[in-house]
Amino acid sequence: MDPISLATITVLAVFVGFEVVSKVSSTLHTPLMSGTNAIHGIVLIGAIIVAGQAHDPWVLAVALLAVVLATANLVGGFVVTDRMLEMFKGRAKKGTDA
Amino acid sequence: MPLFPPVVSSLLYLVAAVCFILALRGLSSPKTARRGNLIGALGALIAVVTVFLASRLENIPWILAAIAVGTAIAWPIARRVQMTQMPQLVAMLNGVGGGAAALIALLELPHAADWWTRLAIVLTLLIGAISFAGSVITFSKLQGILSAKAIVFPGLALLMVGVLVVAVAAGAWVVTSGPFFAAVAVLVLGLAVGVLLVLPVGGADVPIVISLLNAFTGLAVAASGFVLGNVLLIIAGTLVGASGTILTRAMAQAMGRSVSGILFGAFKGGSTAG
């Protein structure tokens, strides 16, 4: 895809990102942060593509490290967010008062 | 051999992107939060299955093994972690995501054909490295490995600005088709910036910095989407970057703090809270 189309998509996504969380209640700050953290774990598909095109063993090794790291981000992110929300059950309690 | 033609994979990536948007909206309201998170996970699953079925991939057994290793590490930790330790776990997971984006960008440098791809590579390297190193420091502060107090020494601000300037110079060299070691330098200098950025942040402000670094990783992932020409990475990363920025400001406001005060307060002599 040409750079202008990609830039168009990016600018629109910025506005969607701003709008979609603009009314978040303060009790949900931490789970929302954790949920967005899980979503950027989708960098995994980038790591898979790079690993899938690697011919040199060193490139493959580094790409596979990226796959492991991104998988941890993605899987751990969604699991820990689910656990946070499980504990919530309507209580107005914050997890980050540490 | 790809099973799907590109049109099908593009449509499935669009479905995944919509899932992520719905996930963010769901997570913004207490009633729908848990379902929102599950919709996000569903979107991620669709995207990962799509990449396997739609791309011409080699080394598939290795990739599957790496996914299994990542899952085997993260799943039990995320299941067992105490509620009080969740913030540092989120910081660590965020950091490794930024690290993954930086590694991808480094490996793609030899394939970059034009200057704007190399610019995207430099941005991914720099932001991903800052996020990784910054997250490791926040993790260490919350875990008690480092002092939770603001760590400041004379000349810290000057040092950070200096390192950042050198990193940007090395990045400019990479953009003008500079050598591979210049990209490695950007990565290493980015790590140093991440450390110097978070050291002066005091304990009570650390959750806000986790949120800020989370937005950083989103931006790094979006930039890696430009590197690979992958629309889903661009959308997902940008969504997280934008919503994370709003969220960081909202968290700071809820605690009566300002983001710039947290990041640069220690530099001006006034220590940050905690």
TrEMBL record, chain A:
Residues 8-89 form the NAD(P) transhydrogenase alpha subunit C-terminal domain. Coiled coil: none annotated. It catalyses: NAD(+) + NADPH + H(+)(in) = NADH + NADP(+) + H(+)(out). Its main location: membrane. Keywords: Cell inner membrane, Cell membrane, Membrane, NAD, NADP, Translocase, Transmembrane, Transmembrane helix. It is an enzyme of class 7 (translocase). GO terms for biological process: NADPH regeneration. Pfam families: PNTB_4TM (PF12769). GO terms for molecular function: NADP binding; proton-translocating NAD(P)+ transhydrogenase activity. The chain crosses the membrane at residues 6-25, 32-52, 58-81. Its EC number is 7.1.1.1. It is a multi-pass membrane protein. The keyword Transmembrane applies. It is found in: Cell inner membrane. The transhydrogenation between NADH and NADP is coupled to respiration and ATP hydrolysis and functions as a proton pump across the membrane. This is proton-translocating NAD(P)(+) transhydrogenase. It comes from Agromyces protaetiae.
